[in-house]
Amino acid sequence: MAAINQVIDLSVDDGIAVITSNHAPVNALSAIVRDGLTAAFEKAIADDQVKAIVLTCAGRTFFAGADISEFGKPAKGASLHALFDKMESAPKPVIAAIHGTSLGGGFETALVCHYRVAVPSAKVGLPEVKLGLLAGAGGTQRLPRLVGAAKALEMVTSGVPVGGKAALGAGLVDELVAEGTDLRAAGIAFARKVLAEKRPLKKVRDRAVEGATPELFAEFRKKNAKAFRGFEAPEASIKCIEAAARLPFDDGKKFEREEFTKLVAGVQSQAQRYMFFAERQAAKIDGLPEGTATRPVKKVGLIGAGTMGGGIAMNFLNKGIAVTIVETQQAALDRGCATIRKNYENTAAKGRMTQDDVEKRMAALSPTLDLQSLADADLIIEAVFENMPIKKEIFAKLDAIAKPGAILASNTSYLNVDEIAAATKRPQDVVGMHFFSPANVMKLLEVVRGAKTAPDVLATAMEVGKTIGKVAVVAGVCHGFIGNRMLAQRQAQAAAMVLEGAMPWDVDRVAYDFGWPMGPFQMSDLAGLDIGWSKETSKGATIRERLCEMDRRGQKTGAGFYDYDAKRNRTNPPLVEKLILDFAAEKGIQRRKIGDEEILQRLVYPMINEGAKILEEGMAQRASDIDVVWIYGYGWPVYRGGPMFYADTVGAADVVAALKKLAPVLGEGFTLAPLLLKTAEAKGRFTG
Ligand code: NAD
Questions:
Q1: N or C: fewer beta carbons within 10 Å in the chain?
Q2: d(Cα 157, Cα 127) in Å, to the nearest integer?
Q3: Is the pLDDT at 72 greater than 80, yes or no?
Q4: Looking at ligand 1, which atom is closest to the CA of residue 393?
């Protein structure tokens, strides 16, 4: 085998050239890979002894994609486009032998080959949309030529890869070879077959796009309008597939290039690429040596089978981890377990789980009224009422029951984890694990690091998050941690604006148009207006209290800030409008018109300001962690990159200027974060 460079080898086996890439960890198409491939293909094409060329990869995968760390930087190394032209126009068959994940640029590399063989476990696809991009090297032009317009639309706009078997069925690969087969040998064997049978050089670019009717595109856009709302990349991808059907290949490719160039320079793809790295960064714990040993977690205990306890339990059951769930009353225990079963049965009814799966999960759940049953649990998560004396009492009891080394976690939303830890004689084993509702669905987990939390406890809590499919972020002990502390700022402004002149639906419309799935008042209606409210103590001091007093407690009572019909469609009730106007008059508030710009600034900028405080106080490890919290916990639109990234796109100086101008209406307690001021003065950024 002859080395072309450090990562590319070329060898010839009785007339078949084999080009092998060995660029750990995932054979990303970095400059050095493109350089080596270009030289290797030139050599193999020029060599008359070579009758066919096999392209394969060593290590765990075929080319997994472009090297996204090169994006937005000055171009270096051989051009991918020139390499692709060379490969596709080779006068001898080029065969890709695929294993692992052949995605994005990696799959585009396979598409310029004349034939593709793969193992069944291989996955192929164009996931660029997830980074706010599209396949920019002919992928959107070749894919529909291979699989037809409908399948290409689905693959390109979802970014979801296709497994080997489905890829064979769809015509994405020509042959599947048995799992574990040496792909070099399989590629050579396939090449010999192509040569023996004198098969033609199949160029994907020469094929026509099937099924590309105007109705197909119109229906696809309509069907996905909600999912694609606000995102630029899916629409650009659809347009490229339309172009593939309408234009000759080279013109279509030019169109694709233009669309790609727009996206790659745009804020959305910058934001989405930033989030890709931010999410990975979140797993890193500052001040903790990499490789800190974690504690094994095989048995989990949950205290409280309410809204959160049940949802949290499901995460573990889904991963085959046994859960013991404790309640004080049999009725509450039965209700909680019945809800878990109902959730699973609903999933089964939709065909996303078998009845057997349901039973397996339920069999791993042990309901009990006896806290003592948690004696052998490795991790115990408390999810009882948000009430400090109750939590302290439980932790004191756990101290006597839990085995040494067990991790004691609280799902508290706001309470002081250090105070909870102090109820035990093992505060080093106590940590916050703050899940988000619905806990079996929402991806975010805030891991709250107490003053005395041991490093391996923190590391274990983060690892547990990963095991159950969450994105875990470290937060410090403060009221509401990262997410809810910032949310409080947004909610306070929303409530204030309604008194000053806006209506709930004005505020919600602006929030929705910004890209949130729902506005603050819709969110309150969904969560229930009566959280923390009681009839006995209610004094009608806020609009919210007055709504609760009218038994308008949100969606669950069919009415809150909005009226809801049986299908949960909302309408704006005149009664609520009157209630607001009367309330404002009673308080002597002179209402004024509040424009959309002010609404947006007051919803978002105080959050950014609070984020800066959180960062400055060390309650978040880094600005990107705050963004991860907002994207995964509160539906912040990913294409805006989270509040701190958004602050950077607006510019800290503009945020400060707006907040100073708004100062008279922001409320007495509002103060500018020194870090925000400093960043503005230095014309700096929060995110890299
Ligand atoms: P919930 O009222 O739905 O459930 C609490 C459950 O705890 C009830 O079933 C109750 O019977 C049980 N319980 C009370 N005392 C107990 C005891 N001593 N032993 C065993 N069980 C006991 O409340 P929830 O919404 O699930 O909230 C639970 C915790 O999670 C709170 O700390 C809350 O702040 C936090 N949290 C809630 C949400 C949310 O959106 N609901 C989100 C994140 C965190």
A1: N
A2: 8
A3: no
A4: 18
In tens, the pLDDT along 174-193 reads: 999 999 999 999 999 999 99
Single-letter residue type at 270: Q
Domains within the chain, CATH numbers bracketed: 2-265 (3.90.226.10), 299-477 (3.40.50.720), 502-586 (1.10.1040.10)
Pocket of ligand 1 (CB under 6 A): 303-309, 326-328, 332, 383-386, 390, 394, 411-413, 434-437
Q: Once rounded to an integer, what is the mean pLDDT over residues 255-275?
A: 96
3-state secondary structure of 527: helix
Name the residue type at position 181.
T
The atom of ligand 1 lying closest to the CA of 413 is: 34
**Cβ atoms of residues 101 and 123 within 8 Å:** yes
User: Average pLDDT of 427-444?
Assistant: 97
pTM, two decimals, is 0.94
Distance (angstroms) between ligand 1 centre and the Cα of 490 equals 24
Of 633, 195, 682, 582, give the one whose Cα is nearest residue 443. Answer: 633
Angle at 569 between CA 549 and CA 220, to 5 degrees: 150
- Residue by residue, DSSP assigns 7-36 as SEEEEEETTEEEEEE--TTT--B-HHHHHH
SS3 content of the chain, % helix, strand, coil (to 5): 50, 15, 35
pLDDT tens digits, one per residue of 366-375: 999 999 999 9
Distance 283 CA to ligand 1 centre (A): 27
